Amino acid sequence: MSELIQRTDANGVATLTLSRATSYNSLSMALMTVLIDQLNLLDEDISVRVVVIKGDGKGFCAGHDLKEMLDSGEESFYECTFDTCSQMMQRIVSLSVPVIAQVHGVATAAGCQLVASCDLAYAAESARFGTPGVNIGLFCSTPMVALSRAVSQKHSMELLLTGELINAVRAEQMGLVNKVIADSDLDAYVDGVATLIASKSRKTLAIGKKAFYEQKELPLADAYARCSRVMTENIMIDDAKEGIDAFISKRAPTWKHC
Q: Which residues cross the membrane (predicted)?
């Protein structure tokens, strides 16, 4: 494991901790590359049914490593940075298992994008969110992609145009995070949610997550047609048959994850 990201596993939950605490876990090219590599490995690991992403130190993620970008000064490096970040966010969405953002401290710019890209997000009371690029002359255009898909148009534009930070309660009201938790309880709460989800069939989770993002982009009738087909395919898998039998028999299911 790279020193940039630490991985721990327990009860089907893989936790990836961004470990650039001195720079508020800013997304250097190296860190993004390692994170993509880790996500690829996790997608093939049948023992993993949930992924949690969190940050080391005082904050979750402050966005791109602006010093690294300025030191380069090359358009090709900027293009590669934004392309790599976009690939990383899309990999989170395409991952077979759910991804949870556990947020403390700041989640700004591409860090806010990272929260918006995850399937679920839980925030400490002290957490702050924002897309402040407009304040330094660099509009948060790529964070806008994830943000505008996670919250409403006017909420997205408010964050993008003002560049102001919002607190965790406001983020929950906007729908950017699922729930605000006391700082001291955040680890335990996220672990509880992750463990609960990890108790389900990995195959079923993968089918459902994929269908969720596919149907969102379709017209209503097409979405129903697509999901009707998905449910037909889902009910044919071993875990669905096991789950239904277990429900009827009033026993706990034994998943094969297939």
A: none
HEC string for 180-236: EECHHHHHHHHHHHHHHHHCCCHHHHHHHHHHHHHHHCCCHHHHHHHHHHHHHHHHC
pLDDT at 70: 86
207 in the same domain as 95: no
Q: How far is CA 135 from CA 62, 79, 159, 163, in A?
A: 14, 21, 11, 6
Q: Are residues 90 and 114 in the same domain?
A: yes
Helix axes 153-162, 141-150, angle to 10 degrees: 150
Mean pLDDT by 10 residues, the chain (258 residues): 88 97 96 97 96 97 93 92 97 98 98 98 98 96 97 98 98 98 98 98 97 96 97 96 96 93
Report the number of distinct structural domains present in the chain: 2
